[in-house]
Queue: 2 jobs
Job 1
Amino acid sequence: MREVLEWCLDACAAKHVTYADGRFVRTQSEAINVVNGDVTRLSSEESVGLGVRVLVDGAWGFAATSDLGRSRVEAASTRAIAIARAASHGRRPGLSLGPPVRSRGHWQTPFLVDPFTVPLGDKLALLCEADDAMARVSGIRVRQAMMAWDRHHKFFGNTEGAFVEQTLTEVACALEARAEVEGRSAARSYPDARGHHGWTGGYEHVLGLDLVRNAPRIAEEAVRLCTAPAVSPGRTTVVLDGSQMAIQLHESLAHAAEHDRILGQELSFAGGSFIGPEDVGRLDLGNPLVNVWADATTPGGLGTYGFDDEGVPAGRFPLFVAGRLEGLLGNRETAALAGHVPGGVARAAGWNRLPLIRMPNIHLEPGDHPSLEALIADVDEGIYMATNQAWSIDDRREDFRFGTEIAWEIRKGRLGRMLSRPGYQGRTQDFWRTLDALGGPETWNLWSVPHCGKGQPRQFARVSHGTPAARFRDVKVGA
Amino acid sequence: MTTSGPSLPWDEATLAAITAEALALCHADEAEIILMGTDHHLARFSQGVIRQHTSETSLELRVRAIRGNSVGIATTTDLTRFGIERVTHRAAAMAAIQPPAPGYPGLATPAAVACIPETCHAATLHVAPDDRENAVNKLMAVIAEEGGEASGHHATEGRVLAVRNSRGVWAHHLGTRAEWSAVASIDEASGYAARLSPDHRTIRPDDLGIEALTRALAGQPVAPPAAGRHRVMLEPYAVADLLTLLAYISFGATAVAQGTSFLASSGRERVVSPAVTLRDNGLDPAMPAMPFDHEGVPRQIVDLLREGLPGTCVHDARSARQAGLVSTGHALPPPNPYGPFPVHLDMQAGTHDREAMLSALGDGLLITRFHYMSVLDPRATRITGLTRDGVLQVRDGRIVGAHRNARFTQGILDMLMGVVAIGRETFLQGSFLGCVRCPALVIEGLDLEG
């Protein structure tokens, strides 16, 4: 594959471009879906191609091809140069990428059991057993069990001398039970909703979940939710589980810290941010409990890799320290513009997509409450909400409303009745100020956001968030 | 306009040869071969410059291998002889492992596919990079002249789909689509415009710039509208947002079979205003038409809502068999655990011109589009979301100012039950499902949270 990259970079160098990089990517994906006992998907997908990106006279051009013959690869390079030249007319000069990136090396996801070597029959048997366990619960109308595993073999090279090779391996699985009782419907998922709870790593992650033991539990909860009272509208103390905290962090702080949004470059599609270009070191959420880190090195995270798609080594750096904004998620271009060090967070969803600023794993550091019970013990009256189900936030990442699959009332420090249709809403900066306690490391886990959309053509990224359970006071709640 | 730009690299003979080779190499009882190609070119712009200018040419092969009632699916973009051999072997191997599926409907049999003229426009295929840049510059200049900043995108695409199976189906189609979006920003105010067309020449970028700019010039937003129910006029962009989400949660056969669609529990009673008729129409050449689906089944026009009454959902072969019906020709590419979806939404226009629409609104709000809508209760079509790029105050049929964005939480059917007036002009737009053609609506009540 090095040869294919050389064809592409040589063709660019011959045309005297300012900069060029090429990415050869082969992605293999296999998946199984079992719905109500039927195997509705058993698939093996492969996508192979090359993307070439060039900088000419201060403008970018990008071309991708699935035909890897030499003439087609060189034609893609020529096409990228032509469209960069077109975009450069009238361009303001001065686009800089900062110091050259000359990374060399190889990185691969560590794992114990290669998911591609586990017999398909074993995987299918596991999902069918979990499906059977859900089927034994009366009132369940739809049962779903899924598993997927992917391998991304990536080669990156640029005209500055970088050449890196990476092999990323991912696994994912999930269960969902949808009940229907007395005309009402409710769903529960395990370990998380959105049909894809994943990790970088091997099949050991799937085995560690104990799908079969948890299947009847979620099925029974779904049935009970159908007749559970709905959350009453009002203001109260809310304790959120790690799953919901992951989406809260993802939507309200992580996306807001993307430098392209902050600069207005995503205004027409993904949106902007409440954070301004000059806010680093100044914006303060007013809560010392808010310590947020970007970390592309977390073992098992879906946003874990060795190098980003600009060849920048993966790293770990702070976004918020004791509530104060200390960093942004930027690529080489935005980092150079702001005088920052690039964080290694430019990622593309495949060979046919342009690398964009995409969050790696973003984590909220744990606090000092040793358990969920300890967080709840201080609550006289409130609601505990678990497993994200719905999410919506405005285009500046300020006004949000989230829903979870399930909730329980909290009375005098203990969990009480199950509640259905839980939801809460607020404004980002106000909300984070009301955070008054965080669970300790015992409550901290990695949760997945498997379909984070951005860019045109649309790109979906996978990312993990390490989050503890957390407690917020005076939150607007409702069904 | 020059014609020196890219053109589709795959003709009918190439598609026929690749699919025939794959079919011959697939050692299974039966097989289906799908080729999907794209030649896609796009420029994204913001703050007066094109920031992303991309081009993709790719062709992908998908194989469904069938052994008895067991189905294995494999895909690849490696179309060398070796790559085609491997993908057919992988599909057959997958089928060998799968337990028999009692619901397997069998492959499609040959059927007459509608001939849709003019779905492929050379002008759309042949937009050279310089022409694209000039068009984008025209739009940006219109907005800059009034002190605004433009952002948005312009894309053109040629698409091929070819389906061949071992029962004799052979269908292929070439289509084009051109798409624009534009946001005009003036300080805190913003406006939006967007269009989709199979023919690049029918969209005038400067007109789009003016349309977006007009909304941004309506005034700086000072505060969100008061909380409560508002009479509103929804621009076609907002209507398209609602219809797309409604289609996603309601009009696919899987949602009906699983009981999450309102169609699963509704009888023949009215669910929306009798003025509302919505269909899926993949055969209209003014849309990016597609005469057959990814199983090679001819596409039918399906009434989803007819004069306020619930219509029917769309089907692929599997869901149709489960329901005891025939496929409506709405299969998505395999592997697809989600079932069929309507991808050519077409809402019937009304009789009101824009002035009459604003008069029908009287005192109320003009909503440009929605943002980040999320489903709270699919069967009740209850969603939450926010307004975006223009909430304008209308008094006595005239725009008098602008508000900040606000959140709403409401059922889509509830909104559509209160339709007061329907515009006679329709806009064709892209959506995450495919495309939507719809008019503006005046509706009695939108529940805003302030």
Job 2
Amino acid sequence: MELQMVKLTLRSAAIAVTAAAVSISLAACGSSGPASSAGNADSATMWGLTGGNQPVLQKSIDAWNKAHPDETVKLDFFANDAYKTKVRTAVGAGQGPTFIYGWGGGVLKSYVDAGQVADLSDFVASNPDVKNRYLPSVLKNGVIAGKTYALPNNNVQPVVLYYNKEVFDKIGAQAPKTWDELMALVPKFKAAGIAPFSLGGQSKWPDLMWLEYLVERIGGPDVFANIAANKPGAWSDPAVKEALSKIQDLVDAGGFANGFSSIAADSNADQALLYTGKAAMILQGGWIYQSMKKDAADFVKNGKLGYVTFPTVSGGKGDPANVVGNPSNFWSISSKATDSQKKAALDYVKSGMFTDADTQALIDSGAVPVTTGIESKLAASPDKDFLSYVYGMAKNAPSFTLSWDQALSPAQGDAMLANLDQIFLKKISPDQFVSTMNATIGK
Amino acid sequence: MSTSTGSSRRVLERGPSGWLAAPALVFFLLFAIIPLFGVLFLSFTKWDGLGEIKLDGLSSWTTVLTDPVTGNALWVTAKIMFFSFIVQAPISLLLGVFTSASQKYRAALAVLYFVPLLLSSAAVAIAYKALLDPNFGLGPGLGLPFLAQDWLGNSDLVLFVVVFVIAWQFVPFHTLIYQGGVRQIPASLYEAAQIDGAGRVQQFFAITLPQLKYTIITSSTLMVVGSLAYFDLVFVLTAGGPGYSTRLLPLHMYLTGFKANDMGAASALGVILVVIGLALALLLQRLGGKNRNASQLEGA
């Protein structure tokens, strides 16, 4: 007993120290957005992300609060990177929100292991409507060891190869279907003074999309499944090394825009290169369609934006229909929330989410909701080509691999992004990458 | 003061009441000493920020001390410290001397030089990130190809870009210190030198520099120890990249603690940072000589 008390005191002291440190650094970064919905002291709290889905979520919560004045939800928005740091520290210090926004994967598992998120299995079992509204392939990303800890809350976000049809017409080229075709396009675009690929290398995570898809196409989904399962030496799979060499080949050939490691994806500078015609192609998440629709409305409206799945690699084992990306974002409910907060939260999940208005708002923003039976709504949208394409891609994919930085533990994810950055800069060899990453297995 | 000459003399003899330091001491204890011991304790544990804190002996220390990234972070920190000092010290000394004179245009310039200090580091970093963008930044915007370098993406260049932006932000502060220091130098010294026939350059080296000895020590201490604390600006500008090129020790500590969620290793890095900072501050104070607290103006 006594020992436990001491442990607890030490732990709360440590948490207080960390919280003080992080609040100082976060205040310096000016992370919090201005938007905030009203609520009373014991109302449920929700932290969302700024960006494409922000107005959709805001509308959904506003509608809920208006209809349920006794079960209001207080909503705040944060920028992506700042949110990831802030929420973890806040949850660790017992100051977290009722609704915890997440991506599933290794990060969700660390919350489950720490007992910070509520088990929603019973809730899902007793509310078949909730379960049935989701695409099953997406829903399973919130399940850990047979129990549901997180429910999808927005849209499917597969990684797509976007291209600028105008510059493709200019040099008379077709979108690449194989890796060899892709490599052959590089000198053609360079000769025309156009960067073959845009890449937000400064943000590091866009680099990862290349590795994810190449490993998937070359070795199939099992390669990463072994890595995620922490099998010793899993990074030594030849598919990883081949993928890394192919990335460095593309760097050597001048495939990426000049100064790609200075380009920030967080400020959308990478997609700007595509729609201004300075770059021909970009490998990015489905969500950039939403921001391009806003920032380059004419480009999207006039059908100049093309999109294909990632090319196949000759001799590769992966099914060309397999997809990588984010199946969706998720809501988890804090296990430390008060009973009335939990009740309000679950009531919102049950009847406030994915209302007809919500689903329509998502579709109007250029996103594909993770719900079933929306084909007719998609077909009625002005963005129907892209939306139906993404919906079909997600629905028909034999395997949908979660972004690796979310699927792995935070320590592994951090090391992976820093080392992959070195691969793109040609500071390390594929062999060095493999041995460094093997050393992180199990961490 | 006017009531009793006896008590005011006693105050003068003993110096001001020790209680004046009490509020600062309480804050120092709460926000510096106690967290310091907390960090020391955490460096012997394993904690991911969410679950139980488990005692883990020296494993965080072995991880940190054998990790090549730590050595690299130390090396990058040392380079930034060295180049920051080499760039900032002469510029701020000269600017400080320049702006200390009383002409109106110099006062106006002093105000302009002061502006960067009013901006938050995050704002400075975001502005520079936009200006240095190779495709949409200053270079392509003005059609000046030599400005359209891969400033933040080239591992060899980025360090100097960071040193430049840091200098841009902090030179005004040190200029202000030097300006104050120069204004403290009695005019009679210069008058005497003029009568003896000393030129402007001679006056600078024979009077201004020696009289600024303690100002130089103060400013240098702030520059050197301060470069152990560069975090926000570099975090927003490069996030330590590309690769590990600008991953300074404090940034490495933050990323280890809050991105990789390894609080044990981050705490060990924090302890290393504190030890280096204290050692450097002591060393610089020693350079000032034993009688460092005496005013340089006495006996002038």
